[in-house]
Design goal:
The complex is a heterodimer of chains A (112) and B (353).
Chain A: E1 3-9, E2 15-21, H1 28-34, E3 56-59, H2 72-80, E4 88-90, E5 104-107
Parallel strand pairs in A: 1-5
Antiparallel strand pairs in A: 1-2, 3-4, 3-5
Chain B: E1 2-3, E2 6-9, H1 13-24, E3 29-33, H2 41-44, E4 50-51, E5 60-61, H3 62-73, E6 79-82, E7 86-91, E8 97-101, E9 106-109, E10 111-114, E11 120-123, E12 153-157, H4 161-171, E13 176-181, H5 190-201, E14 205-209, E15 211-217, E16 224-229, E17 236-240, E18 243-246, E19 250-253, E20 264-265, E21 268-270, E22 284-286, E23 291-292, H6 300-318, H7 329-332, E24 334-335, E25 341-342
Parallel strand pairs in B: 1-9, 2-3, 2-10, 3-6, 10-22, 12-13, 12-18, 13-14, 21-23
Antiparallel strand pairs in B: 4-5, 7-8, 8-9, 11-19, 15-16, 16-17, 20-21, 24-25
Chain lengths: 112, 353
């Protein structure tokens, strides 16, 4: 098995513990979509190019050391996004890997 | 009134390729797009990004794909209404449709194809509860006429190129300009960042960083904004201003299409994928990323496929009494409306004596 367990708190505040495959090059935004934890059309609008911030989430668990560094594009997008906090990340930039076992994130509110 | 056979809403790759498929059937097309240039997302969001899953192209830049599509459809002389959003769809007694744009341009066609992708790109609005109340009463998301701001005080919010560029421009027109940005870092072109810094030092731009506009005040018209510093509710200032211009980029919205009486599911238009990608309104089709059906994949190549199928159905709708079978371009060539003709070289039969 190459799945890890992660916790995703949806925009209504409900926590979902889900299995995330680490062998399919999936990112957190795609995990959310595959489990339909946010309505289609409200997440991953740009397709995962760090160009829309619809997959913004807050990282609640202590995975700072194993999360990838923010790219220029991600920083740029978070600069323009709303509801940004210190622990904000774009889900599409977080690829699933074994080190992220136990990751806990909360989806940021949908911006209009 | 612009009249055509097929009116296409959305000039992205799917909409553009529809012109080609329609042209093979001798149907003329006109495209409407809210963006000022054709290509949709490919031109607006990621022109320099490579695409690897266009059949026959191991790698193609999104911008080049658009250039190629424009070249491919040139013989069919499509019309364009650019920089205008399709606002209303009205069915006429003769079965045709009239689509009116945001600038009042009217288009009439017997077939309407919505190839609207994610929708039209619209300014992103900051989450301030009262902002709707002040729209066009001191709050605007785009600057149409800079003269409006002459000798007025203006607060601009944002940290990207448009926020920087407009701050610089309005610094020469307005009474005073404040630029509010959540961080200290600006991510615009280096020239613009330096210019803003310079203007800030000589007092032409009032730079307010690590701050956010969180509320708006005023009776009928905006008269001040509430600026929160460093995210502290205890550290807020009320700043009098005539105008507030939030500039946070564009995001796609389904927009007025959502009010046309079409069946919407998952922010997309439901179509009949067992046959011709027609919507619940006969004569109105939806293709590409804007539609949905069981198993839908939002891929450019799927949009191309849907365009080809949809054009055959449109042909039957426009010419109910004509018999037709699909022809291969390799066999029949491509005859443009501009008089051009492309075809495979024929073999010559000539005896050698």
């Amino acid at each position: 098995m190459s799945d890890i367990k992660i916790t995703i708190i949806d925009r209504e505040g409900e926590a979902h513990v889900v299995d995330a495959p680490t062998d399919m090059n999936m990112n957190l935004m795609e995990i959310v979509r595959s489990y339909e934890l946010a309505p289609e059309g409200t997440i991953g609008i740009c397709g995962g190019m760090a160009m829309c911030a619809s997959c913004q989430c807050y990282v609640l668990s202590n995975h700072e050391n194993v999360l990838p560094e923010k790219s220029y594009e991600e920083e740029d997008m978070l600069d323009q996004a709303f509801f940004v906090q210190d622990n904000s990340r774009l889900g599409c930039q977080i690829h699933m890997k074994p080190e992220l076992e136990g990751l806990e994130v909360k989806l940021a509110p949908q911006s209009t | 009134m612009i009249k055509t056979d097929i009116l296409i809403i959305g000039a992205g790759p799917t909409g553009l390729f529809t012109v080609f498929e329609a042209g093979l059937l001798k149907l003329k097309c006109h495209l409407i797009d809210a963006l000022p240039q054709p290509g949709g997302q490919c031109s607006e969001i990621y022109p320099k990004k490579p695409i690897y899953d266009i059949p026959g192209f191991p790698e193609v830049l999104a911008g080049d794909l658009v250039t190629n599509l424009m070249e491919q459809i040139k013989p069919f002389s499509p019309g364009f209404t650019l920089g205008e959003r399709a606002e209303t769809l009205e069915k006429q007694e003769d079965g045709t449709f009239i689509v009116t744009s945001s600038r009042g341009t009217k288009h009439q066609a017997p077939v309407v194809v919505i190839a609207g992708g994610l929708g039209s790109f619209e300014p992103r609005k900051p989450p301030i509860a009262s902002i709707g109340k002040y729209e066009d009463k001191g709050v605007s998301y785009i600057i149409k006429d800079p003269e409006v701001y002459r000798d007025k005080s203006v607060v601009i919010a944002g940290g990207g190129d448009s926020a920087l560029d407009w701050s610089i421009y309005l610094a020469g027109i307005a009474k005073d300009v404040s630029l509010v940005h959540r961080r200290k870092d600006f991510r615009g072109a280096l020239d613009s960042v330096e210019k803003v810094e310079e203007l800030s030092k000589i007092g032409k731009i009032n730079l307010i960083t690590e701050a956010e506009v969180v509320d708006l005040k005023g009776e009928d018209h905006l008269d001040s904004v509430v600026i929160r510093h460093k995210g502290q509710a205890s550290d807020e200032e009320v700043k009098p201003t005539d105008h507030f211009i939030p500039l946070f980029g564009l995001s796609p919205k389904l927009g007025p299409i959502g009010d046309w009486g079409l069946e919407i599911e998952k922010n997309a238009i439901k179509v009949d994928n067992t046959y011709d990608y027609q919507t619940n309104i006969p004569g109105v089709y939806a293709i590409g990323d804007v539609n949905t059906y069981p198993g839908k994949l939002k891929l450019i190549l799927c949009g191309f496929h849907e365009a080809a199928i949809m054009c055959q159905s449109a042909y039957q709708r426009i010419n109910p009494d004509k018999k037709y079978v699909m022809k291969y371009t390799t066999v029949s060539g491509v005859s443009g409306f501009d008089g051009s003709k492309k075809e495979a070289k024929r073999e010559v039969v000539k005896s050698i004596n």
